[in-house]
Amino acid sequence: MTLEQLETFVTVSRARGFSRAAMLLNLAQPTLSGRIAALERELGAELFHRRGHTLELTDTGHALLPYAERILALKMEGQQAARRAARGDLGQLTLGANPTCSQYVAPRLVERYVQAHPLDRARVYTQLSPSLMEALLDGVIELALCALARVEPRADVLWTYSAPLLLVVAASHPLARIGACERKDLARFTILSTQAGPTRLGLSRIAPPGAEARVEATAGEVMRQLLMRGVGVSVLPAIAVWDELKRGDLVSVTLSDAELPSYDIALVSWPGRPLSPAAMSLVEMARGATIPDLLE
Fold it and tell me: Which uninterrupted H or E stretch holds 215?
């Protein structure tokens, strides 16, 4: 059973006649008839019945047709994949990221990927970590960026990064001029917090006893904008305020009596599933670059 025989069989079944199929395949009719006869001999059964001037599939033909179509489709997909690889096109990247990584890490990795593979498509989904794990399990995404602490135990961790958390204020804020403080000093200022994520994690460790956030938001980007306006103090990953710290718009304040934890993130996949060339390329980029590299 050859690909030529299967292609001929599928074409005859669609054309419902040898003459038209021969024209579609640009074959001499004896050649086409010979292929069908050879396939029937191998199977030990006829594939077509004559009904007047047209052909109809036998039970054997009906049984073979979906498999023949699937084989030819795989052949075409293989050819397309090989052509894409030859011209540097790796296909489609599907990446999921939690809200924090979607704002700070995923865009920088995807930017590098798009620059390296301008012919590829990339889809980035933002979901909470539990939903990302479900999407990985279901095969909706190939890779997920999320908090290491929320990674499903069965997932494969391909890359990790420990993001330092910083207590930050605007350059015009009183704490910026001092450069350091104690936990109790934070009670004098407006505390900005997200409802979850690294900001909430950091503030839970350093907020003075009894102190509550006066402003809460669902995204770190809101915190960053409020900080830029001098509204209060908050905790954000260094990667989230890298540019603002370099420009001097925001200032990192040292705590003399407390230590902020790190926010550990991970790039993960679901075990037992080979990664596509697109996904492997992104993993290699993450492994090969430091965060300062990504930010410059």
Answer: strand 215-217
